[in-house]
């Protein structure tokens, strides 16, 4: 039984994913979608009851784009665990929907935040002697925007769109599901926000009303279960504009019908360093929300 009261090292996460693939070969397929700057494997996991993956509407869930956002990674892992290892959950969620997970988009950053700097956010690209790290959520190709001389801890987009192996792997993997890509959920922290596109500018996606309604269903399900109250809205309106993020990419370049960035609740001294003592409650709470999305997509398509 995996222990969701603890934060897992990258190695432990890899072992967990491999075990699921080994123990449930009919349900779980593990892909190595690419390698990070420091040559760690980036893992994708496909979950389907169908021999032919993607016959059902596809929900794609990622986390760990930002290294320090451990609570998001563990929430995605817990949802995956529940889908695969808790058959009472599997039944309603897997009969008409297929799932893809990339639980740790940025493994180098995650490992670095584990051992060196708890609040590290970016990947581990060596840029020059004063600068290390690209903000992967500014490096995607849709509306990527150049920024000169910026090596800030947050927001450095890199030299060009998809310059990083991590975003290249993600972009190709997302696009491989174009034919039936219904919902993209990018799990981040923090702020208790459900953000819908676009985020690069104050422009609403065509089906923004439906985005908003689906977001409210996530919000209401969690509020009823635990009393945690999320805010739902357009990324640019309720947070800020940011170019080159994964949610806009999923929608514009990977043919997803719906795309959200979920900012889970904050905790700890910096918001991003959610305390381990609270993580088990949080992953179970987030599960309620992911489940709601699964049920919605199942009815919708
Ligand atoms: O800034 C980000 O990348 C996300 N917030 S975080 O605090 N986790 O770093 C928000 C991204 C929202 N999406 C877009 N602006 N497209
Ligand atoms: Zn983030």
From TrEMBL:
GO terms for molecular function: metallocarboxypeptidase activity; zinc ion binding. Residues 6-297 form the Peptidase M14 domain. One of its GO terms (cellular component) is extracellular space. GO terms for biological process: proteolysis. It comes from the Eukaryota. Keywords: Carboxypeptidase, Disulfide bond, Hydrolase, Metal-binding, Metalloprotease, Protease, Signal, Zinc. Its cofactor is Zn(2+). The active site is at residue 263. Coiled coil: none annotated. The keyword Metal-binding applies. Belongs to the peptidase M14 family. This is Peptidase M14 domain-containing protein. It comes from Polypedilum vanderplanki. The chain holds residues 111 to 411 of 412 of the full protein.
